[in-house]
Specification:
- This protein has 211 residues and is α/β, with parallel strands linked by helices.
- It has one domain: Rossmann fold (3-Layer(aba) Sandwich).
- The protein is 47% helix and 17% strand.
- The chain is built from nine helices and five strands, in the order E-H-E-H-H-H-E-H-H-E-H-H-E-H.
- The chain has a five-stranded parallel β-sheet.
- Helix 1 crosses helix 9, helix 3 runs parallel beside helix 6 and helix 5 packs across helix 8.
């Protein structure tokens, strides 16, 4: 199995446990990019496509499937997300900054709890790396407290599972260090705006801001 080590320029990914604030930071970044007039496409996984919606139904507990099936579903949804006609590659090649709430690192951290790591890794080996990866580091118990205020809780949003995912994320980040991707581990317990400022400081170093 050979991992794709291609770097997609101007592709930015947010990762972290459920409740770590990835969605919030994506939204804050989107507003800032809009303010300065930088071409952008902000997206998330699972997508709003057909396969992505099926994944959401599984995560909500409305549909049941084997863990390996879910891993392959994420791979299928991601293939369309990245290589589809209106996907990540198309948008970066059009000169836009693409920011995504989650990418294949989530699959490696989450699906490999119940499925052999090598299987999940093989499913996700074809996908290129982002130029920048932001990992929002928040303790599992803090994330669990944040999630407890939500109306709908997904199947993975339990403290024992999130604790296991947190450990796996550390391994995933270590495995992907040194491939040319910039990895920033940020303290996700800081003030939201302060975190957003850290992110903006790194985003504005992209070449698109100098054209």
């Amino acid at each position: 199995m050979i991992r794709n080590t291609e770097i997609l320029k101007n592709f930015v990914v947010f990762e972290g446990l459920d409740g770590s604030g990835t969605t919030t930071q994506l939204d804050l970044l989107k507003r800032r990019l809009e303010t300065v007039g930088i071409p952008r496409w902000c997206t998330r996984e699972p997508t709003r496509g057909v396969v992505g919606q099926l994944i959401r139904d599984v995560l909500s507990g409305g549909v049941s499937c084997e863990p390996a099936t879910l891993a392959y579903l994420f791979g299928a949804d991601r293939w369309e997300h990245v290589f589809g006609a209106d996907g990540v590659r198309a948008h970066v090649e059009a000169g836009e900054v693409v920011a995504s709430d989650r990418y294949f690192f989530s699959s490696l951290a989450y699906q490999s709890i119940d499925v052999e790591y090598d299987i999940v890794d093989q499913i996700n080996a074809p996908f290129p790396l982002p130029e920048i990866l932001f990992f929002l580091d928040v303790p599992a118990d803090v994330c669990a407290e944040r999630i407890s205020t939500r109306r709908n809780v997904e199947i993975f949003e339990t403290l024992p599972y999130q604790t296991a995912v947190d450990r796996r994320y550390r391994e995933v980040l270590q495995r992907h260090t040194g491939h040319g991707m910039q990895v920033f581990v940020l303290d996700g317990t800081e003030d939201q705006q302060k975190i957003a400022d850290h992110i903006w400081n790194e985003i504005t170093k992209l070449p698109i801001f100098r054209t």
